[in-house]
Amino acid sequence: MNTPQSLHHAAATAAEASALLQDPAALRMANKPQLRRFEVSALLTNGTVAQTRHIAPALPLFENAFCAFTRGSLVQTEHGPVAIEDLWPGDRIVTQDGGCQPLVWKGSTSLVPARADSKGQRHPLTSFMADSFGMQKPMSCVVAGPAARLLCTPPHMRNGTEEQKLLTPVQAFQDGMNIFETSPPTVVEMYHLCLPRHAVIQVGGLEFETYHPGPDALKMVSYAIKTLFLNLFSHADSVSDFGPLAFKRAEI
Predict the structure, then answer these.
(1) How crowded is residue 227: how many other Cβ atoms within 10 Å of its Cβ?
(2) What is the dihedral of CA 16, 21, 22, 28, to 10 degrees?
(3) Could you tell me which residue, 184 or 15, shows the higher pLDDT?
(4) What is the residue-wise DSSP string for the chain?
(5) pTM as predicted
(6) What is the pLDDT of residue 165?
(7) Does residue 198 contact residue 242 with C-beta atoms inside 8 Å?
(8) Are 148 and 208 in contact (CB under 8 A)?
C-alpha cells in the first residue's frame, strides 16, 4: 500500500508546527524533526480490518504508541501464546483480571536502537533474562522497547510498605545483571497493542500494559500534531476515548 501524498504533506506540516513548541534557540537549528513511517492494523466498527501506513514526526508522542514490544514477543491469547507479529485485530487477548478483550489496534515501526536521532537520542531496549522476577518469570529472555511499562514497582521505588503495583517504565528495572540495556546496531521491528479498555496483559510471561497515550498527552501540542496523532486510531476521536488507566503509572 502506497502512502497517500496527503499524509506526507500532513506530516511535514505537523513537523513544522511542532517547532512552535520549542524555544527560539531550537527554532534556529538547521535540523528539522525526523520523520518516521508507522504501520497500523485496526478493527473497524463493521468488523473489517483496515491496514494503513502513516508518516509522522519521530516525536515521543508518536513513538511511544509503537515501541513497546519486539518482534517475536509472545502475547497470551485465549488460544495460548501468539507471536505479536502474527496477531490480527479481533483476536482475543487475555487480561490481568482474568477476562479477554479483542485486539482493536496494532501498530508497528522499525528503528535502529543504537542509532541516535537528529537530537542525539537513542532508543535502547531492555532485556529481561529468564527468572529475573523469580522462578519462570519470565521463562525465557524477554526484550522490551523504550515505551513498555510493567505492572510492578522496583524495590528502590517502594516506601517499605505494601503498596499497589504501579505501571513502571522498563528502564527503571535495569540492574546491569539480569535486566539490562541493549542497543542492537541493526533494524528492530517494534510493536504496541491497544484494546477497547486499557489493561495489563502477559507478554513473554510478564505483565505489561496495553497502549494508552495518558490523559494529558495532547494538552500541550498543536492542532496539527493532535490531528495527525488521532488519525492513527480509528476507534478514538479524542484522548477520552481511550478510557481511564487500568492502574496508576509510576512518576519517573
Answers:
(1) 15
(2) 40
(3) 184
(4) -PPPHHHHHHHHHHHHHHGGGS-HHHHT-SPPPPEEEEEEEEE-TTS-EEEEEEEEE--HHHHTTT-SEETTPEEEETTEEEEGGG--TTPEEEBTTS-EEE--EEEEEEE-TTS--TTS----EEEE-TTTTSTTTTSS-EEE-TT-EEE---GGG--SS-----EEEGGGG--SSSEEEE--SS-EEEEEEE-SS--EEEETTEEEE-----TTTTTTS-HHHHHHHHTT-TT-SSGGGG---SSPBP--
(5) 0.84
(6) 87
(7) yes
(8) yes
What the block records as the C-alpha cell of 232 is: 492513527
d(CA 142, CA 155): 20
Q: Alpha-carbon distance 162 to 200, whole Å? A: 20
Please answer whether residues 70 and 144 qualify as being in contact, where contact means their C-beta atoms are separated by less than 8 angstroms: yes
C-alpha cell at 134: 523469580
- Residue bearing the bigger pLDDT, 209 or 120: 209
Out of 20-34, 159-173, 205-219, least confident range:
20-34
Supply the mean pLDDT for the chain: 88
- Contact assessment for residue 126 and residue 179, using Cβ atoms and an 8 Å cutoff: yes
Contact (CB, 8 A) for 210 and 76: no
Region of 59 on the Ramachandran plot (φ > 0 left; ψ -120 to 50 alpha; else beta): beta
How distant is the alpha carbon of residue 162 from its chain centre? 28
- Give the cell for residue 117: 536521532
CB atoms within 10 A of CB 208: 26
